[in-house]
């Protein structure tokens, strides 16, 4: 959010991208004034650039006059190369088919987990993850599963920051978290109980290529059924291993 | 593909967007020279703008030196508002769960169908549709299901163009196609047999809101199993009706 009118050296491209970047999960619909406020650009600049973005269908003006990201961006985003999603989806499908539970796939992006795929049915418990959404690592099963396999310096850095506490059950004490991660590593999977959302618990396993955690597969069930989690661990780990195998093969093929 | 150096009036924003638009399903990875050729922009301009796009992670340079669309665009694309995909996914999941067949959801975009979701497993027959991909309307089940409910002028226009013929079985004779569309409308679903891909046949039903076809649900099976298609029609139509109902409710809620 550097200045716009106050930053004449900023290029037009960076201004255009800043406008697109003003939209996020918490701000999916914005007025021109809101875009100007979020980017620090002059309203006249926003007006002109949004007009060009709209013409290209990168943004779309809704019935309420607010702008939203357009379907053309969605379509373009489908070109982002991701052999991981490609190979993982049928495995997630199998896991959902075999268990009837919500399953999702996440990768680490910075210090967060980014959910890249999700398979869910009509009967399963609603889960907070949404494709394209992000959550902190330490309160989520997939986050713990990924964090446990990151290098020591990364984990130390992570634990030294102030950690969010979405529920009273979230473990945020660094020493306890470090011990938990060691246990995840020893057993090959993570379990959480109402650490992200009250009423939900989860199991997750890392997708390991070599010793690098390229993703994690998670399964979320209602806390009322926490006792069923252990029986889900074996199918979960089998699917994580299957994804790792297919992913390695896909990457090797080029 | 209007001129670049030859078109000094073209704005920086439109040039930046032209670079993003140079990527498509048939050209997912491009060198700077290829981008210049596809956009008509000067190589020096492409070099500078791609640098800015790369910095923002809108594009990503692969190990082979070619550029690809970056994950940030994928993430941004997830913000494109689509209550349709949201309400349809669990229904597609049910249809897949109940039949074990590949199912997909498509909308009309221009004179093509755009595939917006797909549910597939490890055992099902591979299908040509890919999320984010487009196909012509007349050879595909979902395309016929949509076309049948478009207004008369649209259909007349569509049929008056030269029509692609991906296989020898593709119906392209306007009179015969028009009769087929009338039949689709009368029975409420479309069937195709090897019209898009040899070895595959499909059934599809429109998702009708009022009398507007907002999407179509399709199911694809191997031609060897063409006789099983009729038994898939009832579950298919039930799911299309369910999606229409939930979609209407979602749109009404706002």
Question: In a few lines, what is going on in this structure?
Answer:
Chain A is α+β, with helices and mostly antiparallel strands and 254 residues long. Chain A contains nine helices and eight strands.
Protein topology:
Two copies of one chain form a homodimer.
Chain A: H1 12-21, H2 32-39, H3 43-55, E1 59-61, E2 67-69, H4 71-77, H5 83-99, E3 102-109, E4 112-119, E5 134-136, H6 141-147, H7 152-160, H8 174-187, E6 190-193, E7 200-209, E8 212-222, H9 229-253
Antiparallel strand pairs in A: 1-2, 3-4, 3-8, 4-5, 6-7, 7-8
Quaternary state of the chains: homodimer
Query: Which class best fits the helix and strand makeup of chain A?
Result: alpha+beta
Overall outline of chain A: globular
Total strands of chain A: the figure is 8
The CATH class assignment of the largest domain in chain A is Alpha Beta
Overall mean pLDDT of chain A: 89
| Rg of chain A (C-alpha, Å) | 21 Å
Strand content of chain A: 15-25%
Number of domains of chain A: 2
Largest sheet of chain A: 6 strands, antiparallel
Q: What are the segments of chain A in which pLDDT stays under 50 over at least 5 consecutive residues?
A: 1-5
* Protein chain pair with the most extensive contact, residues per chain: A-B, 51 and 51 residues
| CATH H-level homologous superfamily name of the largest domain in chain A | GAF domain
Q: Kindly report how far apart the N and C termini of chain A lie.
A: 38 Å
CATH topology of the largest domain in chain A: Beta-Lactamase
Strand order of the largest sheet of chain A: 5-4-3-8-7-6
Instruction: Please provide the ordered H/E string of secondary-structure elements of chain A.
Output: HHHEEHHEEEHHHEEEH
Share of helix among residues of chain A? 40-55%
Total DSSP helices of chain A: 9
